Amino acid sequence: MISCEKSNTNTQASHYPADITISGKIDNVNEGAQVTLFEIQKAGKKDVQTTKTKADGSFSMKYKVDKIGLYTINVGNVTEDVLVLEDKDLTVTNSKFGLDVHGSNENELLHNLKVQYDGFSEKESALNQEYVNAEDKEAVVKKIKELGDERSKTMLQSLKDLDGAYITLFVLNFINDRDQYLKEITAAVNRMAERFPEDENVKEVHAAYMKLNNTSVGNVAQDIVLNDVNGKEIALSSLKGKYVMIDFWASWCTPCRMENPNVLKAYNKYKSKGFEVYGISLDQKVENWKKAIKKDGITWLQVHDAQNTAADAYGVQSIPFTLLLDKEGKIIAKNLRGNALEMKLAELLD
């Protein structure tokens, strides 16, 4: 396993604003290919500097860095990769899967992580090809799952080794089962927040994980009060005494719509035994929500969260997102898919 060099919080202090130079030599690009630096912002990427390559593929650009941040650099609209801008000059070259960036501690850490991740990507591609030609496909699926588990464990160890380095923001994207590893992820995010307390991106991610922790199994679900299809306020707390599944969904969400028949089956089977669903639609348009209710045959309780008030409070980042509550409103399971909901209800109510 390729491990990251542990970040050192006692390294020389950074000084901002800083005038830096990003230079490099890229193989197999035409003279005059555009090189664009993008800043990663909340609303997306913003191009902040451009230059062009010379005949030998070399380029150089100057940029004033106000604070540490995540960026991408694009060469000729063919190759683009992530980098961190600090108060150090950087050099950029080709790599097997994109671009290599060197010159600062954060980018050296990032380089090691890319090598690590690219190694897993190669293995995954090989297994996908093996699956196509395999007679025993279940055996290959098992290998793919084992590789995914190994990658998650490796990335978790990387998070710990990074000791709150800024590229923790980047690593978080490569951990699939965040609920399973929430404790470890939260520790890494807390450490990052300690090191970069004023950074807006860090504050946003930290806040999101604090909300996600509030939906951990064992916690009491925060109350929600929203209007149903008739405009009547319905509080989640009014359902205490029943097993309740909170179900964040929307009419435009295909996975949500695919899951509705499973929820309907479980609901019809267990509603008389004390099971209820508190469905929360994130649709902007009420008519789309109501059409989906009718088309999918939804008969359980539905409320509308057009302003994402509840979704934000619960740290919902993607849907469908579900929580199963016990009779006292305590969270006992998350994101039960397929027949998993019915199996859990059978355990509780049969």
UniProtKB/TrEMBL annotation:
<dbReference type="GO" id="GO:0016209">
    <property type="term" value="F:antioxidant activity"/>
</dbReference>
<dbReference type="InterPro" id="IPR000866">
    <property type="entry name" value="AhpC/TSA"/>
</dbReference>
<feature type="domain" description="Thioredoxin">
    <location>
        <begin position="215"/>
        <end position="350"/>
    </location>
</feature>
<dbReference type="InterPro" id="IPR013766">
    <property type="entry name" value="Thioredoxin_domain"/>
</dbReference>
<dbReference type="Pfam" id="PF14289">
    <property type="entry name" value="DUF4369"/>
</dbReference>
<protein>
    <recommendedName>
        <fullName>Thioredoxin domain-containing protein</fullName>
    </recommendedName>
</protein>
<dbReference type="InterPro" id="IPR036249">
    <property type="entry name" value="Thioredoxin-like_sf"/>
</dbReference>
<dbReference type="InterPro" id="IPR017937">
    <property type="entry name" value="Thioredoxin_CS"/>
</dbReference>
<dbReference type="GO" id="GO:0030313">
    <property type="term" value="C:cell envelope"/>
</dbReference>
<dbReference type="InterPro" id="IPR050553">
    <property type="entry name" value="Thioredoxin_ResA/DsbE_sf"/>
</dbReference>
<keyword id="KW-0201">Cytochrome c-type biogenesis</keyword>
<dbReference type="GO" id="GO:0017004">
    <property type="term" value="P:cytochrome complex assembly"/>
</dbReference>
<dbReference type="Pfam" id="PF00578">
    <property type="entry name" value="AhpC-TSA"/>
</dbReference>
<dbReference type="InterPro" id="IPR025380">
    <property type="entry name" value="DUF4369"/>
</dbReference>
<dbReference type="GO" id="GO:0016491">
    <property type="term" value="F:oxidoreductase activity"/>
</dbReference>
<keyword id="KW-0676">Redox-active center</keyword>
<keyword id="KW-1015">Disulfide bond</keyword>
